[in-house]
Amino acid sequence: MSSFVTHLEAAIDGTHLPADRVQTLHKDRPLWVRYDLDAMGRALSKEMLRDRPPTLWRYRELLPVADDAAITSLGEGMSPLLPAARLGQRLGTSNLWIKDESQLPTGSFKSRGLTMAISMARQFGIRRVALPTAGNAGGAAAAYAARAGMECFVFMPEDTPAINQYECQLAGARTFLVNGLITDCGRIVREGKERMGWFDLSTLKEPYRIEGKKTMGLELAEQLDWKLPDVILYPTGGGTGLVGMWKAFAELAALGWLASDKRPRMVAVQSDGCAPIVRAFERGDKHAEPFANAHTIASGIRVPAAVGDFMILDAVRESGGTAVAVEEGRIRDWMQLAISSEGIAVCPEAAACVGALEQLLASGSIRPDERVVLFNTGAAQKYPEAIASELPRLDIGKPIDWDRIAS
To answer: Rounded CA gap, 146 and 317, in Å?
Structure first.
C-alpha cells in the first residue's frame, strides 16, 4: 500500500474500509481513496514537481499505486491547456481555454482512469477484468489490459461508435454488442462476476478510476500556476472526471498548494436526450432517477443512471455550479463551430459543453471576462458517425468550375 494511503471511505456514509485488499462498493455506492495529506505535505512540495517527467505519474504521492512494478502505462503525458480566443470571441467570452484530453494514448481522458484501475488490479493480482462501455472506456480498458497481459471482456450497446468497437477487438478484448443501453451492459457484467470470475471495472464500482481522473485537476492547477479557473465545463455521464477533479482541488487545498481558497464553479453538461443529473439538480434531489429512452450522439454521456449520482450533484452544489442540458440536435453544429474556430478535434461530448457555455453566457450565469476551462474529453476522429458529411465532388474529365470552388 502506498505509504500515504490510509484507508478507503464510503461516499454514502463515511464508513472506513481497509485499502490493502480488493474493495468495490459499500451499500452499493462508491468508495473514496483517502491519504495522509499531512505526511505527504512534509515529503512533497509543488516545487519538486518541476523536475519530474510531464506525465500523469508525476503526481505519484497523490496516487494509490504502491508497487512500481504494477504500474501499467502507455506514456500518459500531461494534456495541453490551449487558449481558445477565436471560439471565445464567437461565443462572447474573452478568457476561454480548452484542456485537450484527445492527445492521451487511447485518444480520450479514459486513459487516465484505466491506467490507474488496471495498475491497481495488477497490484492485487487480478488477471481478468470486464466492463460495460458506451464508447472510449472500452478501448482504454482493452489497451491497458493488453499492456498488463490481462484478459478483458467488454460489453457495449450495439450503436456504440464503430471505432470504439474495433479498437477493443484489435487490443484482444472479448468484445460483445448488446441490443440495449450501457445499463443493460452493466447488468451483464454484474451477473457474470461469479460465473466468469472477472473483476468489474465499471465507472465508480471500484475506487481507482476516479484517482486517475483526478489528475486532470492536478494538471490544470499546475498549468495555471496553482490559480484555479472561475468555471469548468465538463461533459457528464458516469461523472468520474468531474468528481475526481473536485476531489483533487480539495486535496490541493489541504496541502496548501493553491494560490487562493477560491475554487471553480463546476458545470455538469448533458444532452437533453439523456439528462438525469440535470433533472435531479433542478429538482433539488440527492439522487437521480433513471432517464427513460436515453439517446445522444455524444455516446460518452449517454448514461441513464449513474452509481455516483449523489457525488456529482454534491460537487456541483458545493462549488456553486450548475447542471445544464443542451439541445441534442445542435451538438454537430457546436462541434463544427469549435473545430473550425480552433483546429482542436472537439468530440461530441465537448461540443455539448460549447453549447452550455453559449447558454450560460446568454443568461449571465457566466461573465464574459471570467476564466473558463472547457474539457475536450476525446478525439473527434473516434466518432465517424457524428462527423460524417457529404463532400462536393469534382470530375477530372470536365473543366474545373472555379466559381463553384470559390463559393
So the answer is: 39
For residue 5, what is the enclosing H or E element?
A: strand 5-10
Within its chain, how far is the Cα of 90 from the centroid?
26
What torsion, rounded to 10 degrees, do the Cα atoms 69, 74, 76, 79 define?
Answer: 180
d(CA 133, CA 123): 24
Structure confidence at residue 297 as a pLDDT band (50, 70, 90) = very high
- DSSP secondary structure letters along 147-175: HHT-EEEEEEETTS-HHHHHHHHHTT-EE
CA dihedral 127, 128, 130, 136 (to 10 degrees): 50
Domains along the sequence of the chain with CATH: 81-107+210-384 (3.40.50.1100)
Q: Sheet containing 16-17: which strands, arranged edge to edge?
A: 16-17, 5-10, 31-35
* Cell digits of residue 295: 439517446
pLDDT single digits (tens) 194-235: 999 999 999 899 999 999 999 999 999 999 999 999 999 999
Q: What would the grid cell of residue 390 be?
A: 457529404
